[in-house]
Design brief:
By secondary structure, the protein is α/β, with parallel strands linked by helices. The chain has one domain: HUPs (Rossmann fold, 3-Layer(aba) Sandwich). Helices cover about 45% and strands about 20% of the residues. Strands 3-2-1-4-5 form a five-stranded parallel β-sheet, with helices on both faces. Strands 6-7 form a two-stranded antiparallel sheet.
């Protein structure tokens, strides 16, 4: 069975891949609006031994998300909107090269304690029904402490301020679009400082 797992290069999505690996042929998939390169995620995928692919996301979704974040003054709703779109794009499979087999499942690294992004049951069921795939969230029942412990045991992880750790996640591109449209001050106003992780390899 084949699984497309939405991948940023961070510890959560990498742990999700490791948990699914015994059961699926996992391909790590980074969504992009074409604003920044997905090279950091590709490098992380290679470092942990998984295939990597890129799926193009709709730039209109990014523009709408940036407007929403600017109007809200915080990123939550915009990131949720982008994540839902990315799950649907990964599940759709129309981005695969001719002759490639469709995926049997689509997954992400969302955790039990995440406020955003999340995939609620109605969306998961809708994705499964519309695209004929299973939706998987292998970390959905695991808390942050346990995830940190598993990551420390299995992964070599680089951590630091979110603006300084190169990854291929929505936040990087949304920050760039917000900066382009509203200036650096808007980025500082909308995105709180927090720590990001990027996987460098396996222990």
């Amino acid at each position: 069975m084949r699984c497309a797992l939405l991948y940023s290069g961070g510890k959560d999505s990498t742990l999700a891949a490791l948990l699914l690996d015994p059961f699926y042929d996992v391909t790590l998939v980074s969504g992009t609006f074409g604003v920044s390169a997905v090279d950091p995620a590709r490098e992380s995928a290679t470092a942990v031994g998984f295939d990597h692919a890129t799926v193009d996301l709709d730039p209109d979704v990014a523009r709408d998300a940036v407007e929403r974040m600017h109007d809200d003054g915080y990123p939550r709703n915009g990131i949720q909107q982008v994540h839902e779109h990315a799950v649907e794009r990964a599940a759709d499979g129309d981005w695969l090269a001719a002759g490639d087999d469709q995926f049997d499942a689509v997954a992400d690294g969302t955790r039990r304690d995440d406020r955003v992004p999340t995939v609620e049951r109605p969306l998961a069921q809708s994705v499964e029904d519309r695209f004929g795939v299973d939706y998987l969230a292998p970390l959905a029942g695991i808390g942050r402490g346990a995830i940190d412990a598993m990551a420390a045991d299995r992964l070599v992880v680089e951590s630091g301020p979110s603006a300084e750790i190169p990854k291929a996640d929505y936040e990087v591109e949304l920050r760039a679009l917000l900066r382009e449209r509203y200036g650096e001050g808007a980025v500082t106003d909308v995105f709180p400082d927090h720590t990001q992780s990027r996987v460098r390899g396996l222990r």
